[in-house]
Design goal:
The complex is a heterodimer of chains A (about 775) and B (about 500). Chain A is an alpha+beta fold. Chain A has 4 domains: about 35-135 and about 190-270, Alpha-Beta Complex (Aldehyde Oxidoreductase, domain 3), CATH 3.90.1170; about 140-180 and about 280-390 and about 400-405, Aldehyde Oxidoreductase, domain 4; about 415-460 and about 615-778, Aldehyde oxidase/xanthine dehydrogenase, molybdopterin binding domain (Aldehyde Oxidoreductase, domain 4, 2-Layer Sandwich), CATH 3.30.365; about 465-600, Aldehyde oxidase/xanthine dehydrogenase, molybdopterin binding domain (Aldehyde Oxidoreductase, domain 4). Chain A is about 30% helix and about 25% strand.
Chain lengths: ~775, ~500
């Protein structure tokens, strides 16, 4: 079924390129992999629960914590007034209180934290507070914020040419509106931090986080301390997906503040419902668009208005919405275009990073436009997509993005053509049309959609990384770097990279927990760039050690240093050879430095936020997927019957891990676009705050026919082993499933415009069908 | 009844527990008291499966192994049983990985790894219960109570299909059976700690007596709902009277006239019995809940809990089922629809309990029956709407119609206007359309997180239309999306 994973399993023996198991797989299956809550607890450890606001927008007029303090086993209570430093944990702008003071800005906002000798006691105590509020008017949705001019950040326009004029001169024109829901991360391991006060005003925090350095900063600021007083460590997360980039800070801070206040170890592990009520999610969007095209469906002008729900604070909403703008082209040359991005301030949880980071929301809009243009012109949506692709030939003037980046690596023509052929797109399209012609109740749909995703943090300075490689005198290797492991296989890939560089088996190389006291000033493990950045840094460190060892070997054996090679645990030159361990042993006695740091910064990238022009991305990762669905037009229920994917990972460092990212990304995206619905009560309380009410895909939802292939090629840029980032891009492959559903809905009334809002729940699908059948207002 | 510690088989020996509150969950005991941290907490409400453990029980002298959610099982319910966790598997395999674990490693089926121990235990139960291999449907059902956010499930299913290929590593069942037989000799459990008592009588008479003596005690069966009152609503549920110790409450008996399902029969066993008479229950069984919830949960619990969105009741009401209520030695029987008085309020009197559910068989059995569920997700979701339709046709006319819905009112409820529109009519599309329209007079549903009132009203009628298509309409219109394969490339219909 999935040939991609095994293609290189019998490869040439170098660790890089082989389908090695995840470095913790044997621990995962045995229940022996330690997550923060599994660490042995120190004596005297206290457990924390949070007191949450029960209004969406209100002045707090009184907080009576008497009953909380007097509850059994309670040791201490923390309020904003107890914070010695800065009561803020916002990643960019300081508008994110750790604990609310007199103003509540969303239902579920933490007001205080209670520490008790056990977790159940803390939870029972936390609900005993008496809080009185003076309610204020609440803005809850993206539309309401847009209409009210309520913004967390200023509106951003990104434009090229004269969109209004181009639209006026277009042969065909459409207007449209569509809504796209948010998504909870639903990492299986909820937010957790364990803070231990240490000697001389220092603290160590174990935190499930994608961003230990930012946690270090937030904790230091909250305590009023300097960075060198705080260390933050993370061996692994039970999933992150963006939800533990900035959102983990609040809990790291609360644990640290209470640890310092009580002089005891303090753990906070959120209950799932609290986690989902308190932490931010993927931004939901509302779009309005006006597009023009020629008779081939080729875009001749576009105006697109993107309004997002950011929640009560800015968090990462600036760069998330920027990335939506950067990806509003997806794979298509936009020509004359005017984009408007409105960043709505609402009295809801502060939305944040989530796999794709705005990219999926940008692509969703343009893929809707493509779909509408196909319906308008009566052409196959795939042909309309082909007609709009970037053209790699500069002579035809269709190779520059709307933000001024020239696309040098466009491979979607061959990639999509190969997928089209492999999945029998045309024949199946005909078979589906034939089926739909006679089937009144069940309709099938098919869609093939591409992905082009820019790799790099759009804030250029984040694109740096450090690593430490230690070779011990017995020849074993310990690696540490600034990236975090959330299941994506970063540690596994870096292990392979270092093992390859030193020519040792991967068993000789271990990774140690990410720790701000080892590699400092790290960037978040995000933007899919973990391996690109940390892999390069670790490779550089290992290469420096290898060069020193080669020099020693050359001296010992009387051979030229350039002739020395490292492979299979041996060092050799011609007939001369020695085990790596023996050479290391000798190197120690020869007083050769056996450890090294590495540092990497991504070349070529630059971006001017004022002119909105530049090259924000080092390269693009590409892919495409074809999904076939069936819908029940009576009820609106849907099912994905088959998915075919062709994805570009460059030269894969680990095909098994890359395959896992592709399949997992598709299914996670499928959940976002179908069953995962966030629903707020009219008073602003999120009611889908647990897996009983918020439905991520289960095994049944995985397409029963699921073919995944790599698009064999290598990165044109000098990335680590010519690989490409793979964390985020596959999520957007699931757009094919959404547009297949829309295709099936369209079969109810061929030729009519369709509006389908995401997620395509049974209710949303029925609404779309009703609009087609009865002309109901969508 | 006897005051004694909770006693169960764990790690090859008997463990005795005293002093812990009866509301302590199995998961809390494992993680916080035993520091056995392989079993994870993902949701504490029985929906994610990170906490999956396997429970061993004697069933007619054989060892029955079933996966359940440790997060909502109360510790005293383990009394007399065996508990297995992920840590036991490497012991079973002599210190190396068990074939289930190795298959997951080989298939690259873990990424973040947090859900993995739960999948291991669900698959281990399947492995132990199926000596030969398993197919994809069995694998999917086995993991229906496990959420994975990373892999997309394909490699996990592949591991399930491959796990039988390695040399077999099996549990020493004789050893466990011997241990459970020893535990079976213990007197009825009366466990008290922190001012709360947990009673687990073993005979029906003792249970009825305990019910009279403790009319305020909370009756608990699978705790798949009550567990959440404790873990989520932080409720003190007071004293507990546990049905799980009473063997006769688990019995399922069939006579010519009726099927009688004991209140403590698991949902799995109960549905198998229902399916034997009416295969139309098959899909609802699959979708009712995940396998571990069906293992732990009981039909009696579903019925007695009286939730407006319980999925068993519409079908049972449509089939004319009744409830058998017992108080002391006296029993009375009520039609199920009369059991529900108002939102979460039933006809049970103080000291009374649900003893069994009876479903009529034989001549009175409706000719046409369907029960359908609409939810955002196929597996393990709570219904937006659950419908059931049962018609008796005589001479081409509808002699009797019973229609019931969940999710449309404050209780599971029949649809008199719809039934009236059906009765006496020919079974045809026009009748179906009229009856669907009549539902508007039967229900005033609400907006909530699962669906809007408008959608509920609309889809309720659509379910009746589907019933028509499946039982009287064109065969082609009876196709379900669950049954479809992708189109064949050559253009032939799949």
């Amino acid at each position: 079924m999935n040939k991609a994973a095994t293609a290189r399993e019998t490869g040439a023996g170098q660790p890089v390129g082989e389908a090695h198991a995840h470095e913790s797989a044997h621990l995962h299956v045995a229940g022996a992999a330690q997550y923060v809550d599994d660490l042995p607890e120190l004596a005297g450890t206290l457990h924390v629960a949070l007191g949450l606001a029960t209004r969406a927008h209100a002045r707090v007029t009184a907080v009576d914590l008497t009953a909380v303090r007097s509850a059994p086993d309670v040791v201490d209570v923390l309020t904003a007034a107890d914070i010695p430093g800065l009561n803020d944990c916002g990643p960019v702008i300081k508008d994110d209180p750790i604990l609310a003071t007199d103003l509540v800005q969303f239902y579920g906002q933490p007001l205080f934290a209670v520490a008790a000798t056990n977790r159940e006691a803390a939870r029972h105590a936390a609900v005993r507070a008496k809080v009185t509020y003076e309610e204020l008017p609440a803005i809850l949705t993206a539309e309401a914020a847009d209409a009210a001019g309520s913004h967390v950040l200023p509106t951003v326009e990104m434009a090229r040419g004269d969109a209004a004029n181009a639209l006026a001169g277009s042969a065909h024109r459409i207007t449209g509106e569509v809504a796209l829901g948010g998504q909870d991360h639903f990492y299986l391991e909820g937010q957790v931090s364990y803070a231990v006060p240490c000697e001389d005003h220092t603290i160590h925090v174990w935190c499930s986080t994608q961003h230990p350095t930012e946690m270090q900063h937030a904790v230091a600021h909250a305590l009023g301390w300097a960075s060198h007083q705080v260390s933050v460590e993370c061996r692994r997360m039970g999933g992150g997906f963006g939800g533990k980039e900035s959102q983990s800070a609040q809990f790291a801070c609360i644990a640290a503040l209470l640890a310092v206040k009580t002089c005891r170890p303090v753990k906070i592990r959120l209950d799932r419902d609290d986690d989902m009520e308190i932490t931010g999610k993927r931004h939901d969007f509302r779009y309005r668009y006006e597009a023009g095209c020629d008779e081939h469906g080729r875009l001749t002008g576009l105006k697109l208005h993107l309004a997002s729900r950011c929640g009560f604070s800015a968090d990462l909403s600036g760069p998330v919405n920027d990335r939506a703008l950067f990806h509003a082209d997806n794979a298509y040359f936009l020509g004359d275009v005017a984009l408007t991005s409105v960043r709505g301030k609402t009295h809801t949880v502060s939305n944040t990073a989530f796999r794709g980071f705005g990219g999926p929301q940008g692509m969703f809009a343009i893929e809707n436009v493509m779909d509408d243009l196909a319906r308008l012109t009566g052409r196959d949506p795939l042909d309309v997509r082909y007609a709009n692709f970037y053209d790699p030939d500069p002579a035809r003037g269709r190779n520059e993005t709307h933000y001024g980046m020239v696309i040098e690596d466009f491979i979607l023509h061959p990639l999509v053509a190969a997928l089209e052929k492999d999945c029998d797109y045309r024949a199946r399209r005909a078979a589906i049309a034939q089926f739909n012609a006679t089937s009144q109740i069940i309709k099938r749909g098919l869609a093939l959609t591409p992905v082009k995703f820019g790799i790099s943090f759009t804030a250029t300075f984040f694109n740096q990384a450090g690593a430490l490689v230690h070779v011990y005198s017995d020849g074993t290797v310990l690696v540490n770097h600034g990236g975090t492991e959330m299941g994506q296989g970063l540690y596994t890939k870096v292990r392979q990279i270092v093992a390859t560089e030193l020519g040792v088996p991967i068993a000789s190389v271990r990774l140690s927990a990410t720790d701000t006291s080892k590699v400092p000033n790290t960037s978040a493990t995000a933007a899919s760039a973990g391996t690109d950045l940390n892999g390069k840094a670790a490779q550089q460190a290992a290469a420096a050690i290898r060069a020193r060892l080669a020099t020693l070997f050359a001296e010992l054996k009387g051979v030229p240093a350039e002739s020395v090679t490292f492979a299979g645990g041996e060092v050799m030159s011609g007939a001369e050879r020695m085990t790596f361990a023996d050479l290391v042993h000798k190197a120690y006695f020869a007083r050769v430095k056996l450890w090294e740091s590495g540092f990497y910064k991504t070349p070529k990238i630059h971006y001017d936020a004022k002119t909105r022009r530049g090259r924000p991305f080092f390269y693009f990762a590409y892919g495409a997927a074809a999904s076939e669905v069936a819908i029940d037009t009576l009820t609106g229920e849907t099912r994905v019957l088959r998915a075919d994917i062709r994805h570009d990972v460059g030269r894969s460092i680990n095909p098994a891990i890359d395959l896992g990212q592709i399949e997992g990304g598709y299914v996670q995206g499928l959940g976002w676009l179908t069953s995962e619905e966030l629903w707020w009560r009219p008073d602003g309380r999120l009611m889908t705050h647990a897996p009983s009410t918020y439905k991520i895909p289960t095994g049944y939802d995985c397409p029963p026919v699921f073919n995944v292939a790599f698009h064999e090629n290598e990165n044109v840029e000098d990335s680590i082993h010519k690989s490409k980032a793979v964390g985020e891009p596959p999520l957007m492959l699931a757009l094919s499933a959404f547009f297949a559903i829309k295709d099936a809905v369209g079969a109810v009334a061929p030729g009519q415009p369709v509006r389908l809002d995401a997620p395509a729940t049974p209710e949303s699908v029925r609404r779309a069908i009703n609009a087609l059948r009865h002309g109901d207002a969508a | 009844m006897s005051h004694r510690p909770i006693a169960f088989h764990f790690r090859g020996a008997t463990v005795e527990i005293e002093g812990l509150a009866p509301g302590t969950t199995v998961l809390q005991w494992l993680r916080e008291h035993r520091r056995a941290t392989g079993t994870k907490e993902g949701c504490a409400e029985g929906d994610c499966g990170a906490c999956m453990v396997v429970i061993g029980e004697l069933d007619a002298g054989r060892l029955r192994l079933e996966a359940v959610n440790a997060c909502i099982q109360f510790l005293p319910t383990l009394d007399g049983k065996a508990l297995f966790t992920v840590e036991d598997l490497t012991t079973l395999a002599g210190g190396s990985l068990h074939p289930v674990q190795q298959a997951l490693v080989d298939a690259h089926a873990s990424q973040c790894g947090f859900c993995t121990p739960g999948f291991v235990m669900s698959l281990w139960a399947l492995y132990e219960n199926r000596v030969a291999g398993v197919d994809r449907d069995q694998a999917l059902d086995a993991i229906s109570g496990n959420l994975c956010r990373c892999t997309g499930y394909r490699p996990i299913v592949d591991a399930a299909l491959a796990m039988h290929a390695a040399p077999r590593v099996t549990l020493d069942r004789a050893h466990v059976i011997a241990a459970l037989q020893r535990l079976a000799g213990l007197p009825d459990l009366e466990y008290t700690a922190h001012g709360r008592t947990f009673l687990a009588p073993k005979s029906l008479e003792a249970f009825a007596q305990a019910r009279l003596q403790h009319p305020a005690a909370r009756i608990v069966a699978g705790s798949t709902d009550v567990g959440l009152w404790v873990t989520k609503q932080l409720k003190d549920i007071g004293d507990v009277l546990y049905t799980g110790g009473v063997a006769t409450l688990k019995s399922i008996a069939t006579t010519g006239e009726r099927l009688e399902i004991g209140a403590a029969a698991s949902l799995n066993d109960a549905y198998d019995a229902l399916i034997a008479d009416h295969p139309e229950w098959t899909e609802l069984k699959r979708r009712f809940a995940s396998l571990p919830i069906r293992n732990a949960g009981t039909l009696g619990g579903n019925v007695a809990n009286g939730s407006p969105i319980g999925d068993s009741m519409p079908g049972l009401i449509a089939l004319g089922a009744s409830v058998v209520l017992r108080k002391g030695a006296a029993e009375r029987e009520l039609p199920m629809e009369d059991f529900y008085l108002a939102y979460q309020k039933t006809a049970l009197e103080a000291g009374e309990f649900l003893r069994a559910v009876r479903v009529p068989r034989g001549r009175n059995t409706p000719v046409l029956f369907r029960t359908y569920k609409i939810a955002k997700r196929y597996e393990q979701d709570i219904s937006a709407v659950c419908a059931a339709f049962a018609l008796v046709l005589e001479g081409g006319r509808i002699a009797q119609a019973r229609v019931a819905f969940g999710g449309m009112a404050a209780t599971p409820k029949r649809a008199p206007a719809c039934e009236a529109a059906l009765t006496g009519q020919g079974w045809n599309e026009a009748t179906a359309m009229r009856a669907a329209a009549a539902l508007a007079r039967d229900y005033q549903p609400l907006d909530d997180l699962r669906a809007s009132a408008a959608y509920r009203r609309e889809v309720a009628g659509q379910m009746l239309i589907r019933f028509w298509h499946e039982t009287g309409g064109a065969r082609e219109a009876a196709v379900r999306i669950e049954d479809l394969a992708p189109v064949a490339a050559a253009g032939a219909r799949a």
